[in-house]
Amino acid sequence: MNVLKTLSLVALAGLSGLGYAAAQEPQRVIAHPGVNNARPADARSLKWKVAVGRFSNETQYGKGIFYERDNDPMAKQALDILMTKLNASGKFILLERSDSEKLEAELKAGQGQRIGADYLILGSITEFGRKTTGRDGLFTSEKSQTVEAGVSIRIVDVATGQVIYSEEGKGQAQTTSKSTLGLGGKAGYDATLSDKAISGAIDQLVENIINKCTDKPWRTYLINADADGIIIAGGAAQGIRPGDTFTLYKRGKQVKNPQTGVSFYLAGKPVAQLRVESVDGDTPDTQYAIVSVVSGSFDKGALDNYYVQQ
User: Fold this and answer.
1) For 26, left (φ over 0), alpha (ψ -120 to 50), or beta?
2) Residue 124: what are its φ and ψ, rounded to 5°?
3) φ, ψ of residue 216 in degrees (nearest 5)
4) Which residues form the signal peptide (predicted)?
5) What is the pLDDT of residue 244?
6) How many whole angstroms separate alpha carbon 48 and alpha carbon 111?
7) CATH code for the part of the protein at 48-213
8) Residue environment code for 259-294, b if the CB has 16+ CB neighbours within 10 A, otherwise e
9) CA 62/CA 72 separation, integer angstroms
10) Residue range 256-277: average pLDDT?
11) Contacts (Cβ under 8 Å, ≥6 apart) of 85
12) CATH of 219-309, one of 1.20.1070, 3.10.310, 2.40.10, 2.60.40
């Protein structure tokens, strides 16, 4: 009888211990069906305008006697993959600018604002190769196709003309088929491996591209200030809404670093507060916002000396 009583007490103690241990485990919170754990609908951020120049194919792959540089299918493929991934982030308005050489010339000539974007992305395929390997055994055979790709990216800050980010990513894609005693799958030429390898290379760069393009305050510019009103560039597509307020800055003095030879502007000085009254325009390139001056003042005859910042 004493033995049974002792075993019962041990069992109860064990159950109590289990209950205590369970109480100490982290609890998982499950949302109620009517509750949305996602970001609130009105939570938003202003979008940067990013111009993506046409990619170039710097490899010899696919370059025959009738090759046309401006219609390189692999370069277009890389551009489409990059734009798709950047667009999925929801942080940018993407502008395709195919003539990258002309854009770079404008930047070097100090005409960056003509590009109509905050950043310019230039890219090239620097490495591309396809190989097929196989192995035959007594009863089995195996065949593998492998594609390796390297993609290089440069990001240029349009306001300064400086390259703020440059890196190369590499990707690989592979498919394998096996057969035993002549039975099994047989893999022919797999064209999708090119997509996967290039996509893998770009995947290594996308997060850094997003971080580099969003690590400074959102900025836009005055485009008009007269009897017709004060107008800034950007509208609904960039997330600007009536009632938003922004700070107007006067550009700092332009100086040149004697060590690097690079010219740049010193930090700007806030001179006025602006409030958005209405937005208009049909496309991201033509949208604008009409604003009013809440406080402060500025020289309406020298709009190029100012910029608007979040």
Assistant:
1) beta
2) -155, 150
3) -130, 160
4) 1-21
5) 93
6) 19
7) 3.40.50.10610
8) eeeeeeeeebeebbebebeebeeeebeebbbbbeee
9) 9
10) 87
11) 202, 203, 206
12) 2.40.10
